[in-house]
Amino acid sequence: MTGLDLLPSTDPTSVLRYRDGVYAIDLLTAAVTEFRIFDVLRETPATLAEICARFGWDERPADALLTLCLANDYLDQDENGVFTPSKMALEHLCQGSVWDLTPYYGSLRDRPVVQDYVRVLKSGRPAHWAGLDEASDDWHGSMLSEDFARTFTAAMDCRGVFLGKKLADTVPEVLVGGRRLLDIGGGSGVYACALAANAPNLEAIVLEQAPVGAIAREKIAQRGLAHRVWVETGDMFSDPWPADCDLHLFSNVMHDWGKAEVLALLHRSRETLAPRGTVLVHEAFLDPDKRGPLPVAEYSCILAHSTQGRCYAWSEMEGFLAEAGFVSLGYRPTGGDRGVVVAKVAR
């Protein structure tokens, strides 16, 4: 009926990875050509905080960069959090080596996104979304524009057909035990629809701001699920949330925001969720040591560029959940380099 209860015969993960990792080269180029990070760390190894102080960087994009370098084995990190260039970096990313490849990256120095990253690293403020002119807002502001919101929501909707079904198949017992789902910042509603399509007992509400809320209503109706999935329009940070929901979903939401905003959303969830309710945080998660997976480290680069967030380790998300009053039931990989952390309200 909806297509959301079926999986394709082939796995599109490699197709997703090309798009998700598209800005990783630009962040690495900025680090090599503008800041000579590997030369600096060869002379004086440093922690994340020390690196930020030395270069005048903001911690959020710096974290994304260092994670990318760890995942590629360009940096090593000891038990005290001190970063040093790896053998590969010493041979190929440091000046003075006979195998130095940094001039190869120098030819990319003037790429617009490389220069974006120079500003993002220094300020922490997201750059303009690709294709937007300099007078435009960043991604968050641009989502208030009807034309941009419709284009971007369609882009996120198409991947959700696959990712939503993989999520549903990973948490069947959660869906069977649920009665009403609140999908916070749910975009087109594709994830709410996917979970409902795979759990006939489940109703769902999508909480989204204008103009995305109206777009979500259209997509839900097209999928024939308007009788079980509906939309409430509002700002997830400031407007009231629908009550009487025993299941909350954050799907590809947290990676757009910094720690303060993530905690604010989880606290609102804890305050609103029904007793003994469950929360699902569905994301592209890093491993606890933040040395991979490489595709997630690469995806974090585009988030550091264009949003106020980055990819988090699933262990970091468990810490945020505990701080907000939840008990984690563990992390589960889903599909397409994504996974879900399942948590319950702490008693």
Characterise the protein shown here.
45% of the residues are buried. Helices cover 47% and strands 14% of the residues. The radius of gyration is 21 Å and the shape is elongated. The two termini are 40 Å apart. The model has no long low-confidence stretch (mean pLDDT 94). It has helices at 13-20, 24-34, 37-43, 48-55, 59-71, 87-92, 102-106, 112-123, 139-142, 146-170, 172-177, 190-197, 212-222, 259-272, 294-306, 314-324, and strands at 75-77, 83-85, 180-184, 203-208, 229-233, 247-251, 278-283, 326-333, 339-345. The protein is built from 16 helices and 9 strands. The longest helix is centred in the middle third of the chain and has 25 residues, at 146-170. The strands form 2 sheets. The chain has a 7-stranded mixed beta sheet with strand order 5-4-3-6-7-9-8, with helices on both faces. Strands 1-2 form a two-stranded antiparallel sheet. It has 347 residues and is of the alpha/beta class. The chain has 2 domains: 13-135, Arc Repressor Mutant, subunit A; 146-289 and 308-345, 3-Layer(aba) Sandwich (Rossmann fold), CATH 3.40.50.
Q: What's the total helix number?
A: 16
* Annotated CATH topology of the largest domain: Rossmann fold
CATH superfamily of the largest domain: Vaccinia Virus protein VP39
What is the tally of beta strands?
9
What string, H for helix and E for strand, traces the elements in order? Answer: HHHHHEEHHHHHHEHEHEEHEHHEE
- Strand proportion, as a percent range, falls in 5-15%
Class inferred from helices and paired strands = alpha/beta
Distance between the termini: 40 Å
